[in-house]
Write a structure and sequence with these properties.
The structure holds two protein chains of two kinds. In chain A, about 70% of the residues lie in helices and about 0% in strands. Chain A is flat, with a radius of gyration of 15 Å. Chain A starts with a helix and ends in a 6-residue tail after the last helix. By secondary structure, chain B is α+β, with helices and mostly antiparallel strands. Chain B folds into five domains: about 475 residues, Sodium/glucose cotransporter; about 80 residues, no CATH class; about 120 residues, 2-Layer Sandwich (Beta-Lactamase), CATH 3.30.450; about 80 residues, Helix Hairpins (Orthogonal Bundle), CATH 1.10.287; about 160 residues, Histidine kinase-like ATPase, C-terminal domain (Heat Shock Protein 90, 2-Layer Sandwich). Chain B is built from 39 helices and twelve strands. In chain B, a hairpin with a 4-residue loop joins strand 1 and strand 2. Chain B is elongated and about 165 Å long. The chains are: A mainly alpha, B alpha+beta. The interface between A and B is large, with 31 and 40 residues.
Chain lengths: ~60, ~1000
């Protein structure tokens, strides 16, 4: 359960600061596709984590 | 260029027919199952999320909120990135208990039909908004392309087509579960088509409108003022509210729950979807700003929502518009089909069936199919009529916010299912009612009916509900919902049923069912009991199906198996009739016996089986403990002493390998059975011992396969929560036989000592009698007296002979004369015995054939071996027919022993006498011919030589005659030295 509490805390943190994060992503003057690049990096991270998972691990 | 409504409908019909064909091929098995089960198909089918709103509404949202439109995609991506901790536990519960909708999940977890019914009602209301959004998007896009205003009949035809296809996909035949691989294939095709269309159109726009991506950047730089919306600072409130409602949509919206959990064929695919769906949504969202900028640049005269439909006319590519329309149509129809299927199932299980159950009176499967079809028609028809009634009054984004924010009210309930075992039904229901009422009052009524209750003057405020503050109302309704839920859950205690369900759903606990006995004692009785509510056919089908799923015996009697069968039947009926009805049927018709005063113990074996299944999920301390448990378990399993453990109700919980070997009953066969129901004779032995007072029982005799066996039994009480007892069984048979043999040997020895005493005591008087008889012969001439004297002498000689035999027998067990263990030539011993016998006058014409190789030597005493052969050969001679009979003596070397055989052609020995041949004074000869000590003597001598003797009769199975005596004595090395040979012969 401990791990889940940490995950909850992290989700809450990301959620509360999500407008700030998005503002950073779409900072004026940056390329229009910058949010997509950030988004893509997160997908690569998720892909890497999924690959690291054992076949029977939940 | 304008299209006609017929052309557009024809295009829609063509697309739906393609979908139909593909689904049909899939159902016929023409599409390989590994393709259907491939994670890519699952991910593409999840693309149903990107409905008509993603196609049209996103462009409008981007026009209004800039990058805020990404909340629609990023919200659900967040839920999928957390799939292992958020979606996977729900998938596990949904699959284990056949829960096909969010309402099923609530009914199962909160053990209340009201929880399911209310959530179904609220989701129908929420989904009506979402379906109206889809119909509105299709109808508006038709209006844009045809250039005419709203056609009621065109929309009706489209609605009818969708109804037909939905019935085809999900409400045909007697499907047991809500899973339709053909639907998944169809929706995956829709997802694929949608993304291809949107990417192709995006690329065309980038090059056709802007001249390439480099030029696009230049144009953006040059027209910063015109396209400033994407540079705007995000408003925190709407962003957070949007992010939350779209995050929740993955869990609560009926169409998403259906595709993620109910249609899931392969749980591993969900892990792939954790990055697959975000990637899909990333690709599908990239062209959205391009369409918006192209619309601005080309000054497309439509609403921003439908910019994409006006672009084709601007660069004179009418097919562009047709393809864009097709993309929107696929997106809308996909969501309509899946939503409607899911809602029909929810409405059936949680609104219709609780009120009316046709059970047992007709074919239940057929009735369910018919009602489901009717519900599909009613729900889709209502969605369409709602869209017609709205008449475009609300924008796509407002309709979307209304739908998804209503769904958000279910989020606390879902999270509680997996993470908060203390949440109860009272908290959930009242929290939901509070949240939904606030949603209705602050969002639905003001937006749809323009009713503002604040204007009624009940509250002293000048504030009026308005469109711009919708995010506040969403957050207020959700907060009120959570507060009521948590408050009431903490105030009221959980019922036992709820507690069990909470444990079953919770991520970090294992369901630990107690072991209680059912009234039904066999699976056949299950069928009888269930035939009352279900009818005989359905009852037979359900019970047989559950037995096959659990891989149990065809007819099951074990209490453990019957409890599992009951759980499985409840899960299966839950898939068919919803969890509440299934629970009612099982509780009413498959009852447990009233609980006894003894608290029922936990089902240890079940817990252990589950732990084995969850083995890979345990990590850290739990993993270490599990490794320790497995080690102890294995120790018990491999213990060389047979042991088993029983619960307080004498149900077998553990049965180790040694126990399997001794009893010949395998563990899977016996575990979960009552100890009295296992195979005889173990049932009686173990049952009486487990019930008895004694903790140790020695030398308990039972007969196995007609042969006696002896066992020592021990038991100990287990002092723990799972009270019971452990039994140990020790096989004492070998020791018992050894003991008996020892007694036998002792008896032989005492007979020997007696014989020696008797021989000594009788010897002297007999010698005296013989002397007197000799004297008598010398002293008289009387013929009659002489004859009597001769007879006395004959009789005394016979007595002397018996006495000599007795003396020889007694000496055989007498270790005062140590046995000579020297290499002895076997052939010589046999020859000597034959020679001695040939001196006997009573020798009938029997030929002794000595086939023993002169090189074979045995370790032993030559004289005693001669004695052995004299006895064996004389017995063989006596048993042989009078004339021309043969007796063979053979020997062969086997490893370190020499096998000697003496075979005759006599009449053989009856089978029942074979076991007694070596007992003293046992004889098959006439009373005056044998003493019954010969073979006993032979046996003793062979034993002294560390050998073994046995008798086979008949020797020749064909004729049924003859006897074969087989001896095995330790051999000496083959002597090949000629000198030794000579010495032996001399």
């Amino acid at each position: 359960m401990y791990i889940y509490r940490l995950v909850f805390l992290l989700i809450l943190g990301v959620y509360i600061f999500s407008p700030v994060i998005m503002d950073w992503w779409i900072a004026p003057g940056s390329a229009w596709y910058r949010p997509y690049i950030m988004w893509f990096l997160i997908i690569i991270l998720a892909y890497w984590l999924e690959r690291k998972r054992g076949p029977n691990e939940f | 260029m304008n299209f006609s409504a017929w052309q557009l409908l024809g295009l829609g019909g063509l697309y739906l027919s393609t979908l139909f064909t593909l689904a049909y091929l899939s159902e016929r098995g023409l599409i390989p199952l590994r393709w259907v089960r491939h994670p890519a198909v699952y991910i593409l089918s999840l693309g149903v999320y990107a409905s008509a709103w993603a196609f049209y509404g996103s462009v409008g949202l981007a026009y209004e909120y800039g990058f805020g439109f990404l909340a629609f995609y990023l919200g659900i991506c967040g839920a999928f990135l957390l799939a292992p901790v958020l979606l996977m536990p729900i998938l596990r519960v949904a699959k284990s208990y056949q829960l096909s909708s969010i309402a099923d999940l609530f009914t199962f977890r909160y053990r209340s039909q009201w929880a399911g019914t209310l959530s179904t009602l609220f989701m129908i209301i929420s989904s009506l908004c979402l379906m109206a959004l889809q119909f509105q998007a299709v109808m508006m896009s038709m209006n844009v392309l045809t250039g005419t205003d709203h056609h009621f009949w065109v929309g009706s035809v489209f609605c009818a087509m969708v109804i037909l296809f939905t019935i085809f996909f999900g409400a045909r035949g007697q499907s047991r579960v809500e899973r339709h691989p053909s639907l998944m294939v169809g929706i995956a095709l829709e997802g694929l088509l949608k993304i291809i269309i949107i990417l192709v159109l995006g690329t065309i726009v980038a090059y056709k409108v802007f001249g390439g991506f480099g030029e696009l950047n230049q144009w953006l730089a040059d027209n910063a003022q015109r396209v400033s919306s994407l540079d705007r600072h995000l408003e925190d409130g709407p962003w957070r509210a949007l992010l939350l409602i779209f995050f929740a949509s993955a869990l609560v919206m009926p169409h998403m729950f259906h595709m993620i959990f109910t249609e899931n064929l392969n749980s591993q695919a969900l892990f792939k979807a954790s990055w697959g769906l975000p990637l899909y949504l990333l690709l599908i969202s990239i062209p959205v700003p391009l369409f918006m900028w192209a619309g601005i640049k080309m000054s497309v005269p439509t609403e921003p929502d439908y910019f994409i439909l006006g672009l084709g006319d601007r660069f004179e590519m009418p097919w562009f518009n047709a393809v864009a329309f097709l993309g929107g149509l696929t997106a809308a129809s996909g969501l309509l089909i899946v939503s409607c299927l899911a809602l029909a199932s929810m409405a059936l299980n949680h609104i219709i069936l609780p009120v009316y159950q046709p059970l047992a009176r007709r074919d239940i499967y057929r009735w369910l199919t018919l009602v489901r079809r009717l519900l599909i028609t009613v729900i889709l028809g209502s969605g369409y009529l709602f869209a017609v009634w709205l008449d475009g009054k609300l924008s796509l984004s407002i309709l979307g916010v209304l739908a998804f924010s209503a769904g958000l009210q279910l989020l606390p309930g879902v999270l509680c299912v997996i993470y908060w075992p203390l949440g109860n039904r009272i908290g959930f229901i009242w929290g939901l009612v509070t949240g939904f009422t606030l949603w209705l009052v602050t969002l639905a009524l003001p937006l749809i009916l323009e009713i503002d209750i604040l204007a009624w003057g009940i509250w002293p405020t000048d504030y009026r509900l308005n469109n711009n503050d919708w995010h506040y109302y969403v957050m207020i309704s959700l907060t009120a919902n959570i507060c009521v839920f948590v408050g009431l859950s903490l105030f009221f205690k959980l019922t036992t049923e709820e507690e069990r369900a909470a444990q079953a759903c919770s991520v970090d606990t294992l369901m630990r069912p107690s072991r209680r006995e059912l009234i039904a004692t066999s699976s056949e009785e299950f069928k009888d009991f269930l035939s009352v509510p279900l009818g005989q056919t359905a009852a037979d089908r359900e019970v047989n199906h559950a037995i096959a799923q659990l891989q149990l015996h065809e007819v099951e009697f074990r209490p453990y198996a019957l409890r599992r069968l009951r759980d499985q039947i409840e899960a299966n009926l839950s898939g068919l009739l919803g969890p509440a009805i299934a629970q009612d049927i099982v509780q009413q018709y498959l009852q447990f016996k009233p609980a006894s005063s003894v608290t029922p113990a936990q089902d240890i074996y079940f817990v252990e089986t589950k732990l084995e299944d969850y083995h890979h999920r345990l990590s850290g301390l739990a993993g270490e403990l599990d490794t320790l448990r497995r080690y102890h378990r294995q120790t018990l399993q491999n213990l060389p002493i047979a042991s088993c453990s029983l619960g307080v109700d004498l149900e077998v919980l553990m049965w180790n390998q040694a126990m399997e070997q001794i009893t010949g009953i395998s563990a899977p066969q016996v575990i979960g059975s009552h100890i009295s129901s296992i195979d005889a004779p173990w049932a009686e032995l173990l049952f009486s011992f487990a019930n008895g007072e004694e903790r140790h029982v020695s030398k308990k005799r039972i007969d196995l396969e007609g042969r006696p066996h002896w066992f020592n039994l021990h038991k100990a009480t287990i002092d723990s929560d799972a009270a019971g007892q452990v039994l140990m069984i020790e096989d004492y048979t070998e020791t018992q036989l050894l003991e008996e043999e020892l007694v036998h040997s002792e008896r032989l020895a005492s007979v020997g000592r007696l014989a020696a005493g008797v021989a000594h005591e009788i010897g002297n008087p007999v010698t005296g009698i013989a002397c007197l008889a000799q004297n008598l012969r010398l002293m008289t001439k009387n013929e009659e007296v002489l004859l009597t004297a001769d007879q006395i002498l004959d009789q005394t000689q016979r007595v002397s002979k018996i006495l000599q035999t007795l003396m020889r027998f007694s000496r055989s067990g007498n270790y005062s004369q140590p046995l000579q263990h020297t290499p002895t030539q076997l052939k010589r011993c046999v020859d000597e015995a034959i020679h001695l016998l040939s001196l006997s006058a009573a020798d009938p014409q029997v030929s002794f054939i000595n086939n023993v190789n002169s090189e074979i030597q045995v370790m032993g005493d030559g004289q005693r071996l001669v004695q052995v052969f004299v006895n064996l050969l004389s017995n063989a001679r006596d048993a042989s027919p009078a004339e021309g009979a043969h007796v063979w003596i053979k020997a062969s070397i086997e490893d370190y022993t020499t096998r000697i055989e003496v075979i005759d052609e006599g009449s053989g020995i009856p089978g029942d006498q074979l076991d007694h041949l070596f007992e003293p004074f046992f004889t098959t000869k006439d009373p005056d011919k044998g003493t019954g000590l010969g073979l006993a003597l032979v046996y003793s001598i062979i034993e002294e030589h560390y050998g073994h003797i046995r008798v086979e009769s008949p020797a020749d199975p064909d004729t049924g005659r003859g006897t074969r005596v087989i001896m095995q004595v330790p051999g000496a090395a083959i002597d090949k030295s000629p000198q030794t040979q000579e010495q032996t012969e001399s």
